[in-house]
Amino acid sequence: MTVQLTLFNSKMEVFKTIKSLQQTLSHKVGKSTLGLVPTMGALHEGHLSIVKRAKEENDLVIVSIFVNPTQFDKKEDFVNYPSTMQADLEALEATGCDFVFVPSAEEVYQGNLSADSFDFGGLDKVMEGKFRLDHFDGVATIVKKLFLITRPNKAYFGEKDYQQLMIIKKMVEMESIPVEIVPVGIFREKDGLAMSSRNIRLTAEQRLAAPEIYQTLLKSKMLFENNDLKKVKNFVKNEFVQNKELALEYFEIADSETLNPASEILPESKYRAFIAVFAGQIRLIDNIALN
Ligand code: AMP
């Protein structure tokens, strides 16, 4: 079934079923290149910039909008995930997106609403994986399904979810899926807050406090140049102790490739700092390259 958009002269096509999507892709893609941008909707400028980039690098672009139940460890986070479908579709159309896939959970999981188990060689055992159990099995399951359904040449993932990006790269390698994974840098609000669909759920006070997350990452990067790891970590912990709006869940400095938490700094290795913070019930993450 093709969903009709209420947009004048729209060339963008929206699909709810795998069958209708694949029928169209099979006769429209041909020798053209296809770029996929997987999203969970509630699109912001960051998402749209990724779509623009995909459009520059591919003949055709498909965006998926699907809030994937199997990657949420907390039901309330899944239930409260924001949805702005009509605005999303209008923004995608204005960005030049060609196809949108908006399946139901039933369509994607076909009665088996569970995640596959993957061995990511430890990439999933730290940071987000440690605090959100089974999260990455859920992510890899849905992304693999989307790759097999759409067969894109390139797929785009934001460095905002850096650990997710590394896990998708690993999954593609393990499963020999012929797709190029393209990393995209982090898009930020003017005050430095990393753009996120969750930001619209912040109260005015939380929104005012939230730029502190990136400010702290910037300071940790400066400290990292001349101080040992313990000093940097203690500094970050202390930054949030007095904060009424933001509670630190974790701060970690890890190897950019293996994601192993650093115990010492090797001059030939690249490191990133990763942070997760709660503003009330809303969980915000961010990260930064340190060297
Ligand atoms: P989401 O809808 O949050 O699952 O995000 C869909 C894709 O957009 C993922 O690859 C995210 O990493 C990416 N993304 C979300 N927010 C940002 C951002 N602020 N900067 C860069 N990429 C982002």
Automatic annotation (TrEMBL):
Belongs to the pantothenate synthetase family. Beta-alanine binds at residue 71. Its EC number is 6.3.2.1. It catalyses: (R)-pantoate + beta-alanine + ATP = (R)-pantothenate + AMP + diphosphate + H(+). (R)-pantoate binds at residues 71, 164. HAMAP family: PanC (MF_00158). This is Pantothenate synthetase. It is found in: Cytoplasm. It comes from Lutimonas vermicola. Pathway: Cofactor biosynthesis; (R)-pantothenate biosynthesis; (R)-pantothenate from (R)-pantoate and beta-alanine: step 1/1. Homodimer. The keyword ATP-binding applies. Catalyzes the condensation of pantoate with beta-alanine in an ATP-dependent reaction via a pantoyl-adenylate intermediate. The gene is panC. The reaction proceeds by a bi uni uni bi ping pong mechanism. The active site is at 47 (proton donor). SUPFAM superfamilies: Nucleotidylyl transferase (SSF52374). InterPro entries: Cyt_trans-like, Pantoate_ligase, Pantoate_ligase_C, Rossmann-like_a/b/a_fold. ATP binds at residues 40-47, 158-161, 195-198. One of its GO terms (molecular function) is pantoate-beta-alanine ligase activity.
